[in-house]
């Protein structure tokens, strides 16, 4: 069984805890990928120390020299792209085509971030005194902790590692314990790109590692992607020292379908948004809010499309839907469907574990109708291939229902009416908006942004990301 360790101060080292945990393929649980480090607070201590030691030298290089390492990492990742895609599919479960897409998104983030090196500028302003210049510039905040989930094991870490390094912040990266292999490969690419020791450190493990990072006084900022409960725990734990945080959290995203929508366009947007990656995306469509005048027809078309989808391993080109990530997720999906039925929802299709695939964590793609807008399944994240259809009485009611949740990640509307498109863009309480297209997907140069409890702090991607990894200075020079 291969054993995988941490990367601290430029060396691959076993965890001080001496503990490991197995990593299993969700498509076939007999495939054990390896034993990965189960680290603890002592390992975090060493990693933060290594990062602090690297800080001044890394800062002194300046962004344009630092970007050369990112450019080399881009080249190495591009060269090893297929190996990365296969690793992602093997440990996270998504379809190989989706994993290849994730590699491309990660390359795009590296590409965008590298180019930003020449744009990390401030402004020169008028001064109040004569013979004086006044201006602003950015400084890196210091050592950062990067805590990531399992659903995008390459792209989300890349959203954090690339800007942290370019900004001049040495990093301690703590990936999800469910996807340690991709984290190891990502770290290898940066190590092979010639980063000085300590600039990027990898500490594998679960909650104790995350907690130790958040608690460490020398960590100036935490960039976290994951669930709302863990995000709020991090915010609480760092509040006493005003820890800088960037929290990318959950979603309960709606596609609003109005009575004038092209229903084929709407069905396509819904199916891609709800069942891609088996619904395990923060921006996944989990609610359809449909005008009751077209609801029956929409549900019939959805049922025809969804019941024909094939659940199977990500490596099989015939699969339309991948497994969910582990047994907990599978049970959580089935339990959510059962509770929804108690609340009055009816199963249109799916609702069970896939019967003929006992070796992995496969959930049938599920559509529920007659879902009350305030039922638990319409309010809380399921994070699986489960879609709730909710009836609305016209545009205003649809927008009220779409906004009735505590989350605000993505919002989508399907209509041919221009004025209702603009009204919806204005009224959605969500960060990433889509019209007549799937409500998922992100560009490296657009902010990955949420509203309400979906996000806190400066967003990732886009030039807005510098507001997390850097802080402003203002300066005046008299001569
Ligand atoms: P999670 O919150 O359970 O775990 C996320 C990470 O936090 C893991 O690395 C975990 O080990 C670590 N962690 C757990 N407890 C901690 C603690 N007390 N202190 C510090 N770190 C701790 O989330 P998950 O199950 O890995 O991922 C699914 C969640 O992520 C969903 O809610 C999903 O919506 C969200 N997500 C959000 C985005 C986004 O960009 N907003 C993207 C992807 C996933």
Descriptive overview:
The protein is of the alpha/beta class and 479 residues long. The protein folds into two domains: 3-248 and 452-478, 3-Layer(aba) Sandwich (Aldehyde Dehydrogenase, Chain A, domain 1); 253-435, Aldehyde Dehydrogenase, Chain A, domain 2. Helix content is 39%, strand content 20%. It has helices at residues 41-79, 81-92, 96-116, 155-167, 180-192, 207-215, 228-239, 263-275, 295-307, 327-342, 376-379, 394-402, 418-427, 466-469, and strands spanning 3-4, 6-8, 11-13, 20-24, 32-37, 124-125, 132-140, 144-147, 171-174, 200-202, 221-225, 244-248, 253-257, 285-291, 346-349, 366-369, 386-392, 410-414, 432-435, 455-456, 470-478. It has a seven-stranded mixed sheet, with helices on both faces. A six-stranded mixed sheet has the order 10-9-8-11-12-20, with helices on both faces. It binds nicotinamide-adenine-dinucleotide. This is Aldehyde dehydrogenase family protein. Keywords: Oxidoreductase. Residues 12-474 form the Aldehyde dehydrogenase domain. The active site is at 248.
């Amino acid at each position: 069984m291969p054993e995988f360790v941490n990367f601290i101060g430029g060396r691959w080292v076993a965890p001080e805890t001496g503990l490991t945990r197995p990593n299993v393929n969700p498509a076939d649980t007999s495939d054990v990928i390896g034993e990965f480090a189960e680290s603890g607070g002592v390992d975090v201590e060493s990693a933060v120390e290594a990062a602090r030691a690297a800080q001044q030298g890394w800062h002194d290089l300046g962004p344009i020299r630092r970007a050369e390492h990112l450019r080399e990492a881009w080249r190495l990742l591009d060269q090893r792209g297929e190996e990365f895609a296969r690793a992602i599919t093997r440990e996270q479960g998504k379809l190989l085509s989706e994993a290849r897409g994730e590699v491309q998104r990660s390359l795009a983030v590296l590409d965008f971030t590298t180019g930003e090196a020449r744009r990390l500028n401030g402004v020169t302003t008028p001064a109040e005194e004569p013979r004086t210049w006044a201006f602003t510039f950015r400084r890196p905040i210091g050592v950062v902790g990067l805590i990531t989930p399992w659903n995008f094991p390459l792209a989300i870490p890349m959203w954090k590692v690339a800007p942290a390094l370019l900004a001049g912040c040495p990093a301690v990266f703590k990936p999800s314990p469910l996807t340690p292999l991709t984290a190891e490969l990502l770290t290898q690419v940066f190590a092979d790109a010639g980063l000085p020791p300590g600039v990027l450190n990898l500490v594998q493990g679960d909650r104790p590692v995350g907690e130790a990072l958040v608690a460490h006084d020398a960590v100036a900022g935490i960039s976290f992607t994951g669930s709302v409960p863990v995000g709020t725990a991090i915010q609480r734990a760092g509040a006493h020292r005003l820890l800088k945080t960037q929290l990318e959290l959950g979603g309960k995203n709606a596609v609003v379908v109005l009575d004038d929508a092209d229903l084929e366009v709407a069905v396509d947007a819904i199916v891609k948004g709800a069942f891609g990656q088996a619904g395990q995306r923060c921006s996944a469509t989990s609610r359809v809010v449909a005008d009751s005048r077209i609801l029956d027809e929409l549900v019939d078309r959805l049922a025809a499309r969804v019941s024909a989808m094939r659940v199977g391993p990500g490596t099989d080109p015939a699969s339309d839907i991948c497994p969910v990530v582990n047994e907990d997720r599978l049970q959580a999906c089935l339990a959510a469907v059962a509770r929804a039925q108690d609340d009055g929802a009816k199963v249109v299709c799916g609702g069970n574990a896939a019967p003929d695939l006992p070796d992995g964590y496969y959930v049938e793609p599920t559509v529920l109708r007659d879902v009350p807008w305030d039922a638990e399944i319409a309010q809380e994240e399921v994070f699986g291939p489960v879609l709730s259809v909710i009836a609305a009485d016209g545009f205003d009611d649809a927008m009220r229902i779409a906004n009735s949740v505590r989350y605000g990640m993505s919002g989508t509307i399907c209509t041919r009416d221009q004025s209702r498109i603009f009204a919806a863009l204005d009224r959605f309480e969500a960060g990433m908006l889509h019209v007549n297209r799937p409500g998922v997907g992100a560009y490296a140069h657009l902010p990955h942004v949420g509203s309400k409890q979906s996000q806190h702090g400066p967003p990732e991607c886009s030039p807005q990301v510098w507001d997390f990894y850097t802080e402003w200075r203002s300066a005046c020079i008299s001569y």
